[in-house]
Amino acid sequence: MASFRTIDDMPALAGKTVLVRADLNVPMADGHVSDDTRLRAAVATIAALADAGAKVLVLSHFGRPKGRDEKNSLKPIALALAAVLGRPVAFVADCVGAGVTAAAGALPAGGVAVLENTRFHVGEEANDPAFVAELAASGDFYVNDAFSAAHRAHASTEGLAHVLPAFAGRTMEAELKALEAALGSPKRPVAAIVGGAKVSSKIDVLTHLVEKVDHLMIGGGMANTFLAARGIDVGKSLCEHDLKDTALDIMARAEKASCTIHLPYDVVVAKEFKAHAANRVANIHDIEADEMVLDIGPAAVEALADALKTCATALWNGPLGAFEIPPFDAATVALARTAAALTQGGTLLTVAGGGDTVAALAHAGVTQDFSFISTAGGAFLEWMEGKPLPGVVALQQA
């Protein structure tokens, strides 16, 4: 990975204005923030800059408004940010214009303000140079701390890095270092654990990974598609039968690249998709026509755990079964705890990401025990596909 500057490389900041692109696009319920994970992730960067005497203006999008829409205002989020930051946070009712200039002028050194939703302006998603210039007019420096929005070439995520001195914030820096350790220049052998419902949503991920990793462990509904491609009758399981050729192509690529693909040879099957449904462990050749695979079996989990013990690096994206409904969470929980124990034992570097993955690892109680867990959804997936992320490329060019 090409190098990038971090906030440790910034010059003296006393009295300077720094535009920080954070991700304040948080879930809300009844007008209040229901999950402040992303706000807490922004604290390290904002606090470091404010403590250095900078005036910090925080930029973010929120939701998908079409023009100005008060339902998508960042005003309530500014209050929530103040609570997690432990210091006052002003709110400015726009992100460009005279009001921002005046607010920046009035802000004391070390002061923090959240500017209104960048997506209230069409120039944001269009990455319009005129809008970029308007945003930049208020700042001396630009810090991008929103890896989760780095796959978008928008004005506040990419454009600003070309017109102001640009640096990576603490969250962005940690994310990029973890991803470099997982796939860029990893310690080998490398395992990738990829689960989830559908092969169709992860064709590019799987195609990219077989060229990069030593072990590809496939679980979730997508394992059924690979089993079916190998001639296994998966009963009434979730399966993309039209993607058998794609699965065969991925397996052929893996063989050529000396990547071992691990598919389950025992599975947990049930006749209905509900919590605590009657179920049994079956050999993959013994799935009945009216049964569906809802998890991988205990022998398969043990085999994956044994393979993980030989690895130095593991990348995890997606659950191994229908982890939301017990007891079909058993494989995900068991393998997550093995990976966590190996991480804590110092033999395995673990990097995980993706919405369902974060929820599954939290369910397994191992969130604190992995080396790094990314909260970025789309950006993490595009990185796993090997695609360049515009927000990251712009920082590297800077």
Describe the structure.
Helix 1 crosses helix 2 (75-85), helix 8 packs across helix 9 (244-256) and helix 10 packs parallel to helix 11. The chain is built from 14 helices and 17 strands. It is α/β, with parallel strands linked by helices and 398 residues long. The strands form four sheets. A six-stranded parallel β-sheet has the order 5-6-4-1-7-8, with helices on both faces. A six-stranded parallel β-sheet has the order 11-10-9-15-16-17, sandwiched between helices. It has helices at residues 37-51, 75-85, 98-106, 122-126, 129-136, 170-184, 203-209, 220-229, 244-256, 298-308, 330-344, 355-363, 378-384, 390-397, and strands spanning 17-21, 28-29, 32-33, 55-59, 90-92, 112-115, 141-144, 166-168, 190-194, 215-218, 260-262, 266-270, 279-283, 292-296, 313-317, 349-353, 372-374.
Topology, number of strands: 17
Report low-confidence residues grouped into runs of 5 or more: none
DSSP summary: helix tally: 14
**What is the CATH T-level topology of the largest domain?**
Rossmann fold
* Beta-strand percent range: 15-25%
Structure characteristics:
single chain, about 400 residues, alpha/beta, Rossmann fold, 6-stranded parallel β-sheet, about 15% strand
Summarize the model shown.
With 398 residues, this protein is α/β, with parallel strands linked by helices. The protein has 14 helices and 17 strands. Strands 5-6-4-1-7-8 form a six-stranded parallel beta sheet, with helices on both faces. Strands 11-10-9-15-16-17 form a six-stranded parallel beta sheet, sandwiched between helices.
